[in-house]
Inverse folding.
């Protein structure tokens, strides 16, 4: 990967106040205890007011807010930014791509923009693309991961839709994270060594499907969200191990040289299975899903935000994202500068 | 851009038989003559049976079919392909990204996949990303542009929805195009010189919006598609001229050295305005929208498919795509090998 890519700063954005499991249980009359054991998330933020149903934040709002923080921390003006890459599964609209509305909001004009459609692996795909964009005319760029689940969040307690989307309410959350990427080496930055992004598991049924509806679907919409929890619990730890081995091999690192692990941010008991499967004893694990919720493509950037406060020069980190939709394994090797 | 990128082969796919303006007028009782003057499209293909409303092709179906043709023409097996990039505005679902279902259908496993969300500019963005993916572990890849408008195609003649989506019916169409990209120079291939992809027109209102609906939108859906035809007619020719000038400057080419122009494939009188604005006298124009319909991200690949039959070694071509959503200008310089 050339030229070198460095994460100079990070930024994050969450809508409104945190919503804990008790608040959701009160609002919808569901059972907290069993849900909590299953999902493992203590709180999350929503881009909608759960009481009024009013949407409070768009993906554009959250993405622009995270970018603005990352830019301020790197002391950048809009004219300094040469490109934007967004990874999301939940764009504000199909067209225009939300990344352009974020650029517009930030006052960034005449730049290359790209938006990757993906579940959680999109965050690392966006980082990969951003690294490859760095060249003589792209010196500094913004990489963003963001998701909002509000369009699929049915809040009417009088329908049985809450039951259907209950896992969304408890497990998911909304948010955005961003990073400033530059080819120039800045002390205190994090170098991106290699990025793995690999479609796996040929012929295996998707573990997660999230649909969208058009005007012609309104009369008879399909199930909006489907998840195969058993397949996810089985396959994600194995794919995480594969991703770890493959990205270390690509980078030429021994596992013992890694100080930090940013593991897949999946709900429930899966994270523990992943840790067991990876057999990591002496690494520091950096996770955020319990407090941020499963904010999809935003989560790896929240983890990077935490890593930046801790990683020292020459320390090594590996971030892994496993997307159970059609079984994507993604990973990145990082090094403190 | 290094290493060099070469388009080795192309493939296309259209669903079913062509649907001409008379057939649509018969089906919906609309006025052909005025519509035809406005839209400039003689026929298009739809991934839905207009009489029964039955969906006949998914984006996955069409994308895989176009890829299979491109692979067969380049004599490639699934194991030869190192990556797939899809540009689309109309994925089959939000998650998994359709590009993975296309890979699965083709029997391609353990490869890097990326899906760019974009209007028509996504085709050139996908080509750009594919060129940047070529490296020591990515030697050969598939680039795909595809769109299907059927999810927004309301066919009930008893509602007034046909009126609202009439421009979709007449102007749009469904299809997919693909190209095999390789770093190795193959005689008869087309070299990709430079790709321009630039968000423009800061603060200008979008000229086109295509929305998607979630489970929470079903009760009160917004207008699915909005277009500002006047702004499109005004701005697209100007942006096409800018794109032409900028991509020629990036490549270091004089306009007089260009033999072929693949202009923006926009409906109605816009193409003539574009040609006038570009002031091109001695170039051969390669267009397909009149016969294929406005199949979005597929169209640049249909144009490439036509170019491949004509371009000779050392001849030069420029392709331009202007996306009026949030005013994206994209262009690529190409050279016969």
């Amino acid at each position: 990967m050339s030229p070198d890519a460095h994460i100079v700063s990070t930024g994050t954005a969450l809508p409104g106040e945190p919503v804990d499991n008790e608040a959701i249980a009160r609002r919808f009359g569901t059972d907290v205890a069993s849900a909590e054991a299953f999902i493992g998330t203590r709180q999350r933020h929503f881009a909608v007011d759960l009481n009024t149903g009013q949407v409070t934040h768009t993906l554009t709002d959250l993405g622009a807010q995270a970018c603005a923080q990352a830019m301020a921390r790197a002391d950048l003006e809009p004219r300094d930014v040469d490109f934007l890459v967004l990874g999301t599964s939940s764009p504000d609209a199909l067209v225009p791509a939300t990344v352009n509305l974020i650029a517009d909001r930030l006052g960034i004009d005449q730049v290359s923009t790209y938006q990757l459609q993906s579940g959680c692996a999109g965050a690392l795909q966006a980082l990969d693309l951003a690294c490859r964009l760095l060249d003589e005319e792209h010196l500094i760029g913004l990489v963003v991961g963001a998701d909002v689940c509000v369009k699929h969040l049915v809040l009417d307690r009088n329908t049985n839709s809450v039951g259907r989307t209950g896992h969304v309410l408890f497990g998911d959350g909304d948010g955005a994270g961003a990073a400033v990427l530059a080819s120039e080496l800045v002390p205190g930055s994090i170098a991106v060594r290699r990025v793995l992004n690999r479609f796996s598991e040929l012929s295996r049924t998707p573990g997660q499907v999230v649909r969208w509806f058009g005007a012609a679907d309104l009369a008879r919409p399909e199930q909006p969200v489907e998840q195969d929890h058993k397949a996810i619990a089985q396959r994600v730890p194995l794919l995480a191990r594969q991703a770890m081995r493959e990205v270390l091999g690509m980078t030429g690192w021994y596992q013992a040289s890694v100080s930090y692990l940013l593991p897949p941010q999946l709900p429930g008991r899966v994270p523990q299975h992943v840790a067991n499967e990876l057999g990591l004893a002496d690494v520091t694990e950096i996770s955020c899903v319990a407090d941020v919720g499963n904010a999809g493509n935003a989560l790896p950037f929240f983890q990077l935000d935490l890593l930046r406060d801790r990683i020292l020069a020459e320390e090594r980190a590996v971030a892994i994202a496993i997307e159970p939709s059609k079984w994507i394994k993604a990973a990145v090797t990082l090094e403190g500068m």
Remarks:
- Chain B touches chain A through 66 residues (CB under 8 Å).
- The radius of gyration of chain B is 19 Å.
